[in-house]
Design goal:
With about 400 residues, the protein is of the alpha/beta class. It is built from 11 helices and 11 strands. The structure holds guanosine-5'-diphosphate-alpha-D-mannose and manganese (II) ion. Guanosine-5'-diphosphate-alpha-D-mannose binds next to strand 2, strand 3 and helix 3.
Length: about 400
Amino acid sequence: MLRHNLLLPVSTGDLLIPLSPITDRDIQLSLIIPTYQERNNITEIVQQLTIELDRLIPNGYELIVVDDNSPDRTWELAQDLTEQYPHLRVLRRTKERGLATAVVRGWQTARGQILGVIDADLQHPPEVLGQLWQAIGSGADLAIASRNVEGGGVSEWSLLRRCLSRGAQLLGLIILPETIGRVTDPMSGYFLLRRETIAGKVLSPVGYKISIEVIGRGDIGKIVEVGYEFQERQTGNSKVTGRQYLEYIQHLFRLRLARSGRFLQFIAVGLSGVVVDMSLLYLFSDASTLGLPLILSKILAGESAIINNFLWNDRWTFADLIRTQTSRRQKFRRFLKFNLICLVGLLLSLTILHLLYNFAIHDRYIANFIAIASVTLFNYWLNLKLSWRVTDDSK
Ligand code: GDD
Ligand code: MN
């Protein structure tokens, strides 16, 4: 039998979604259906989604099944369905596995400006799509189906599964509060989002949770949550195992590092500055070396550390913000701002050092360390906003 729709080519390499898809058709929505062993569900879900989307976006959508070489040959049945459903496309992966990366590979071949994902096993009710689509139409960047808002819930989940899900959410709130805290159901695998919020960013999800990847790495502004009842599976079974929970924790830490990367670099540079500051404070002020007055020694040591930190931060921590600002004059202007901010920080730390050393901790080195640590956050935030971000005219 001639197949109506050959399998889509599988993207390889970086999980990077293009800003403007190559397409000759006006596709508004590309909805990914990730499948693994869903032969008994795939016909029903394609049929229900077609009814729903023919009503919502007639001729303006595509369904993309992304199957990971299911032993039950789900991909093959999906291919046969393309005869009857021309807006259905099928992608069969044989070299990669995993729910989250399957979704991203599907988005890489997608042609719509709005991307989405829904499970194949009918646990995500297709009729919720209307409200998600309406939320996107009202300006949301992300419209996500949630079990934890009004109208939401889970069917007969065991107490264990409920505790595991809530426990995972709590852990996420501790490690990645600014991401996990933005939605009531960060585990949701049912949502629509604007392509431009994640286009051009190299994604690197782990395991199941594609939603925390897009919220953690994307430029997501307005989020709308729509309540839904997570349905009982009719056939087949969940592929969630203990491994997915470990992958979730790994994913949280990977996002934590990615989101704190710049601050961690600033801290590393700051630590090198501490070494410079402490060594020179010893060289200038200790009785066994030059024995200069403490305040003069601190000023000389502090300024030397500021120069050290500027050179490292300019070439490493904030380098990506100043790719087009490399002239000597621009560099010197950044140095002056950095110096001014750090001198304010130095005055702050001098005051703290003086107060701590004379009234609390009579060890100059411990007092100095506390003084430095306390102005680090002040220096980072102000320099990011005033010394580097503002010089980036492209922003
Ligand atoms: N391509 C691909 N590769 N698809 C997969 C894989 C995989 O490795 N593992 C699972 N899927 C597909 C399943 O075929 C199904 O369509 C969907 O992903 C969800 O898989 P389930 O195994 O049924 O997950 P669940 O029901 O326990 O949890 C789902 O719902 C939760 C609430 O929305 C998942 O979507 C979770 O991510 C989600 O938190
Ligand atoms: Mn399921």
